[in-house]
Amino acid sequence: MIVFLKRRFTRMGAGTIAAFLLGLTVLSLQPITDSSQESRGVFVALELPCDLGQVEDMVAQACVLPKLKNTEPVLRAAMDDAVEARLRRVVILIKDGEIEGGLNLLAPLLKQGHPRAQFLASELYRRGDGLPQNQHLSLELLKVAASQHEPSSQFALAKRLMENCSNECPKIMEAITLLKAASGAGYEKATEALAEIYYVGIGVAEDEQEALPFIMKAAKAGLSASQRVLAHLYSEGKVVEKSPELALKWNEKAAENGDFRAMARTGWMYIRGEGADTDRVKGLGYLWIAAHAGDGPAQCFLGTGMLNDWFDISDRLSGLMWLKMAAKKDKQCAELVLQKHYSELSPAEEALTNRMVEHCSSRHECGSKPWEWGSVRG
User: Fold this and answer.
1) Cβ count near 299 (within 10 Å)
2) Higher pLDDT, 232 or 288
3) Which of 83, 267, 327, 354 would staple 283 via disulfide (CB 3.0–4.6 Å)?
4) How far is CA 321 from CA 56, 182, 298, in A?
5) SS3 content of the chain, % helix, strand, coil (to 5)
């Protein structure tokens, strides 16, 4: 019985527990043949059936539901919540160095063959956290968890199959199948991965038309990279009808989700009046935040604008500071402007500019903010 096992565990060292878990892992790798068992996990039928109030006991395997398939959805959801709570506790305990306690909690779920437990154990084996590092066993656990239709495991396995895909990607179709299954289950990271595969051409030919439905689905789900790419498609009129308004809308959504490249593009569009009325104060606000966060194009545009009085602000040294910051990331943008203006600096101005760069890089003191520039006109 599980109670007996738990008592034995408390007397074991972490190394012994790891070895015992290895045995449980091997048990959990047995294929699932009973079609009546739900994909959420294999719950071994013990002698004691569970009452409706014994959710935690079900998770601990002190009792189980004989037929999970026929259980009320509310109870099944409660089971899922209890499992996730236990797995979160495992992660916290192992992170805090309480390996024995964490593995004690993981063992029953792993013995049951629960896919989320298999996914967590796979990660622990992969990283060597609390369990001996074992890449082969990590991969096998991931495969079994994915075979139980667990979306995060399908996604993780697909990413493993796509490792070192820069030249050839022999398992790309298998990865795509896994990602489509995870995406269909609502795992939107998988949707964005599919968008990237077709948009960039990872293991397949570039195909923006094929990528479009995945880009749109991920963008609507709030994934900022897809929102930024969708904005670019609307801006260029690629595979969608050109629309500055929609380009601004999706850039701004990505910016609100913390995408600094999209912030730079949003700022640029407001300053130029693309997709909306010109609003230089708002545009400069977006640009400054993106530049401060280290986005090269934002730094380059902000610096160039200051040097050329695009914003009704003439601040030569701050402009050069932003360009020098940009040159580290976006050399092509910054070099030409720097060559023209840097030769005009006195030694004292050059030293001051270098100090400003150092302060901005190390102390995040990057001069005044656009909303403090009283002379900027909207």
Assistant:
1) 31
2) 232
3) 267
4) 59, 46, 13
5) 65, 0, 30
Q: Which CATH number fits domain 150-258: 3.10.20.440, 3.40.50.300, 3.50.50.60, 1.25.40.10?
A: 1.25.40.10
* Helical pair 188-196 and 172-184, crossing angle rounded to 10 deg: 140
Determine the straight-line distance between the first and last CA of the chain, rounded to whole angstroms. 73
Going by the DSSP 8-state scheme, the letter that residue 49 receives in this structure is: B
* Residue 119 near residue 145 (C-beta atoms within 8 A): yes
Residues 370, 284: Cα–Cα separation, whole Å: 6
Amino acid at 314: S
Least reliable range by pLDDT among 36-45, 62-71, 214-223: 36-45
Q: What pLDDT, in 10s, does the model give residues 125-175? A: 999 988 889 999 999 999 999 999 999 999 999 999 998 887 688 999 999
Average pLDDT over residues 180-194: 97
Q: Over the stretch 83-123, which tens digit does the pLDDT of each residue have?
A: 888 899 999 998 898 988 898 889 888 888 889 999 999 99
Q: Please give the Cα distance from 295 to 311 (Å, whole number).
A: 19
**Interacting residues of 83 by C-beta distance below 8 A, sequence separation 6+:** 41, 59, 109, 114, 116, 117
Give the residue-averaged pLDDT of 17-31. Answer: 57
For 325, residues 6+ apart whose C-beta sits below 8 A from its C-beta are: 291, 294, 299, 303, 357, 360, 361
Per-residue pLDDT, 311: 73
pLDDT in tens, 104-114: 889 888 888 88
